[in-house]
Specification:
The chain is an alpha+beta fold and 445 residues long. It is built from 16 helices and 16 strands. The chain has an eight-stranded mixed β-sheet. The two termini are 38 Å apart. The structure holds 6-bromopyridin-3-amine. 6-bromopyridin-3-amine (4JN) binds next to β5 and β6. The site of 6-bromopyridin-3-amine has 10 residues, from β5 and β6.
């Protein structure tokens, strides 16, 4: 997560040590290709980021859930040509089961909702932070894992649910010091495409595949998008109509094309009105080219982008009213978003908003003689009971080392145990900012 480790889409090659050798050489200490270690300095940043995810989720009244990183492959068998399902980190386990490391969290959430069935009183407002995986040919050298924060609302058909999710995303950005001058949120509705396709007699079964292809409009040449759409069986004039509709950037133009009764127009207008109420309308912009690349979205779709245009999408989401029924459940309205741990750190680095996070303790407890180690334990236990973060100096260290150590850990106090003081029932306490020193009876510590 550190600005360096996280942004490295390209993975490190094997270390010099190479594969484990039989002659007692050092093993390859690098993590598996495409994955990251989190040494303390990176783990502090990750913990800081996840704490912000959790604080915003709590602010919006969401409950935390979790599920296994390993799931049945069947959760992700979709026929829409999504990249996410073509890069499953899947395998057959020793019981002959087809399993996979999860590429996203939403299908697990849907599984849990179905498992809970009627015992889960709607609406559900659940959030999760989980590691997600892909298996990509290393030729592209991209990472194979990242952590995603998801927030989902199950059981609300109206766009007030999407408005809550968008408000949570804006609250998160604002909490980190990111403003609407740095980031915008493009928003559209798949019912735009549905209406356009409906006018050109495209089978409903192709809808998801069309969305997956159209989602690539800004990533691959237009000719390639046209080729893939015609390969789906779309007549050329339909392809032109679709691509023209995707250029719409104003709700008025959309209304002119689809009519004021069109569901997409109605829903988007409602959303912008709620955005004004929440006060985040200046973050939002209608953009018909946003369809998102997941097959199961059925309505509102949105993604946050950095206004310099240098980064990939920061987060994205939408409405998926049919996902539970595709798993054999009752149709249940649902919407949610996924927020990855990588792009946001790149953005914070660019905006110089990365926090300075150090390893800190309150007290260093330093026994001057080994014989005083049991007494040092008494002092440390007492201080910890008070909630103070204590580092007991271990090993046979000198005072010079202890003061250097205290500086590294930005300790507030050095608590020194000497036999003379201890026989009088006290310890020497040095305030490391005022440099003031005094003997304190143990009970006054
Ligand atoms: N779905 C997915 C999983 C892992 C990474 Br890295 N990116 C996308």
């Amino acid at each position: 997560l550190s600005a360096s480790a996280t942004t490295q889409e390209s993975v490190r090659g094997p270390s010099q040590a190479g594969p484990p050798s039989t002659d007692g050489g050092v093993i390859d200490t690098s993590p598996p290709r495409g994955t990251r270690d989190f040494p303390p300095e990176d783990m502090r940043l990750r913990t800081w980021l996840f704490n912000n995810f959790r604080e915003v989720s709590s602010l919006f009244g969401f409950e935390e859930i979790d599920f296994p990183v390993l799931e049945s492959e069947e959760l992700y068998i979709r026929k829409a040509g999504e990249e996410i399902t073509q890069q499953l980190y899947n395998f057959e386990d020793k019981g002959g089961r087809r399993v996979t490391l999860r590429p996203e969290l939403t299908p697990s959430l849907a599984r849990l909702v179905l498992q809970k069935g009627k015992s889960a009183s709607l609406p559900l407002k659940w959030f999760a932070i989980g590691q997600c995986w892909r298996y990509e040919r290393m030729t592209r050298g991209r990472r194979r894992e990242h952590y995603q924060w998801n927030m989902d609302i199950i059981g609300i058909p109206g766009v007030e649910a999407e408005a809550e999710l968008l408000s949570a995303i804006v609250a998160f950005f604002s909490k980190l010091g990111i403003t609407s001058s740095d980031v915008g949120i493009k928003i559209s509705n798949r019912k735009v495409l549905q209406e356009v396709l409906g006018r050109s007699v495209i089978p409903e079964s192709s809808f998801a595949a069309v969305c997956v292809i159209v989602d690539k409009i800004e990533k691959i040449p237009r000719a390639e998008v046209e080729k893939e759409l015609t390969a789906l069986g779309l007549p050329v004039e339909a392809v032109d109509t679709i691509l023209r509709a995707l250029t719409l950037r104003s709700l008025d133009d959309l209304e002119e094309l689809l009519g004021s009764d069109n569901e997409a127009v109605v829903e988007l207008k409602q959303l912008f009105e709620l955005a004004r109420g929440y006060g985040f309308e200046d973050w939002l912009q209608f953009d018909a080219s946003v369809v998102r690349g997941l097959a199961y979205y059925t309505g509102t779709v949105f993604e946050a982008f950095d206004r310099t245009g240098t980064l990939r999408a920061i987060c994205g989401g939408g409405r998926y009213d049919k996902l539970l029924s595709t798993f054999g459940g009752v149709d249940t309205p649902a919407c949610g978003f996924g927020f990855g741990d990588a792009v946001i750190v790149e953005l914070l680095k660019e905006k110089k908003l990365l926090p300075e996070l150090n390893h800190e303790v309150d007290d260093i407890v330093m026994p001057l003689e080994e014989e005083l180690r049991p007494q040092a334990a008494i002092v440390a236990a007492r201080l910890r009971t008070q909630g103070r973060r204590v580092d007991v100096v271990m090993g046979n260290k000198k005072m010079k080392w202890a003061f250097k150590h205290a500086e590294r850990l930005q300790a507030k106090r050095m608590v020194i145990l000497g036999s003379t003081e201890w026989t009088k029932g006290s310890v020497r306490v040095k305030d490391l900012s005022s440099r003031e020193e005094k003997d304190l009876p143990l009970e006054e510590l």
